[in-house]
Amino acid sequence: MATFEPVLTRNWGLPDSHTLRVYESRGGYQAARKALASDPDSIVATVKESELRGRGGAGFPTGLKWTFLPKDRKETFMCINGDESEPATFNNRIIMEKDPHMFLEGILISCFATKASVAYIYLRFEYINAYRILERAIAEARAAGHLGKNIYGSGFDLEIYLHRGAGAYICGEETGLIESLEGKRGWPRIKPPFPAIEGAFRKPTVVNNVETLLCVPHIIERGASWFKSIGVPKSYGPKLYTVSGHVNKQVCVELPLGVTTRQLIDEHAGGVWKGRKAKGAVPGGISMGLLSADELDVPLDFESLRGPGCLGLGTAAVTVMDDQTSIVDYLYNTARFFAHESCGQCTPCREGTGWMYKMIKRIRSGGGRIEDLDILKNMADNLGIIPGTTICGLADGAAWPFKNAIAKYRGELEDYIRTHQSPGARVTALQENIAHGISAGDGTSLPRADLPPTVIPASAVALRNPRPEPA
To answer: Measured between alpha carbons, how far is 158 from 119 in angstroms, rounded to an integer?
Structure first.
């Protein structure tokens, strides 16, 4: 294979890479001028031919998504998902901070292709630096004629607006994003209708991810065949991988789709920290599930990760766990996150994520039973949009880590349950009375002498004296 040439990150190492001056000096906005001199349908056809798949998590073909818009539409909106709320994911943040104009050029070309005259960047509220940089970049682009009325004399008009979210994971789902954008409670809509038919403000809407649109200028500049020369079949093009967790160096690196977790750890992240070995890794955000230590050579692309039972590539945010990490702690943190972030609209998700969290919390506190693992597995198998019980995929993301962990680390989980039982404790006099239906009276009565002493089960002790949660 030919030497890989990074294109998405080609400006990152330059001083003032976030400015229009630097971007234009590197050929910026030339692809947009080329695109706006053609016609929208040809741009859609080129992107469709490239087989660019969405980089936000689902991996849906971008060009195909654009064709779902009604032919007779009068108005179109573009929404760009810059919420990036998947834990351990930070590639979009770096894009917006280091090279916002490449991102804006991708929006411009994509809006021209889909005939959208208004674009909304839905930005994660915590990304304050990215917000300020994007504000300046949009102003620069408008002043230079890259945005506004009659861009490049083509007759095409475009305005881009920044909209900051309020810290909800669920707003990463496209219809939840649209609801929040409209000023309503951010939770997913029932589909159909899909956003392409009835999206933002009940108008045809395209929702794309930041990194997805970053690829578009390069496809227009170099062609669909160039894009398909990178990566592996069904997973073409360059990809921004982030690596964090128990590694010596946390990085965001651009590589062809199809590299392995082991390559990322050893060649780019400086190896596992403290001289330890990897127990496993999350391949693309915690909702994707787990790779065990024996599966680190599985290619990180849209298709291969289904083999080891992962939900997919996700955001390609690899999180490494060393061999001293407890799988129980991993599941506890994961379950706590999803139980908190569930919007509560669907009963299976609202209740199921809460039950899973309470069960793993009890196991972690010393009140677990071996049969709890089978109950958790059964809950995971019956939770989410894939078995058809919820509106969106948050429940699937909550279930998949449990499916993987129980299948791949059951021995460790059973050993933890056996060796972390809290000892029993005698009940108080008041508890003894209540247990046997005796009135407490004025609180001075003693337990009946003829009743045997009662011992609190370990599970009850665990609930009464839970293990302190980390700050």
So the answer is: 7
Cα–Cα dist 60/237, whole Å: 14
Gap between the Cα atoms of 170 and 394, Å rounded: 7
Q: Domains of the chain (ranges plus CATH)?
A: 20-229 (3.40.50.11540), 234-322 (3.10.20.600), 327-419 (1.20.1440.230), 425-464 (no CATH)
Q: Are 124 and 172 spatial neighbours (Cβ–Cβ below 8 Å)?
A: no
pLDDT score of 471 more than 60: no
Q: Say how far apart CA 241 and CA 299 lie, in whole Å.
A: 12
CB-based contacts of 263, cutoff 8 Å, min separation 6: none
Give the max Cα distance, the chain.
97
Contact 342, 353 (CB under 8 A): yes
Q: What is the pLDDT of residue 449?
A: 45
SS (H, E, C) the chain: CCCCCCCCCCCCCCCCCCCHHHHHHCCCCHHHHHHHCCCHHHHHHHHHHHCCECCCCCCCEHHHHHCCCCCCCCCCEEEEEECCCCCCCCHHHHHHHHCHHHHHHHHHHHHHHHCCCEEEEEECCCCHHHHHHHHHHHHHHHHCCCCECCHHHCCCCEEEEEEECCCCHHHHCHHHHHHHHCCCCCCCCCCCCCCCCCCHHHCCEEEEEHHHHHHHHHHHHHCHHHHHCCEECCEECEEEEEEEECECCCEEEEEECCCEHHHHHHHHCCCEHHHCCEEEEECCCHHHCCEEHHHCCCECCCCHHHCCCCCCCCCCEEEEEECCCCHHHHHHHHHHHHHHHCCCCCHHHHHHHHHHHHHHHHHHHHHCCCHHHHHHHHHHHCCCCCCCCCCCCHHHHHHHHHHHHHHHCHHHHHHHHHHCCCCCEECCHHHHHHHCCCCCCCCCCCCCCCCCCCEECHHHHHHHCCCCCCC
A 10 A CB-CB count for 354 gives 16
6 C-beta neighbours (distance < 10 Å), count:
13
| Mean pLDDT along residues 65-71 | 95
Give this prediction's pTM: 0.86
Band of the pLDDT at 343, cuts 50, 70, 90?
very high
Kindly list the distances between the CA atom of residue 450 and the CA atoms of 62, 436, 456, in Å, as whole numbers in the listed order.
Answer: 75, 12, 19
β-strand pairing of 231-232 with 118-123: unpaired
- Position 463 scores a pLDDT of 43
- Which two tokens mark 458? 């370990």
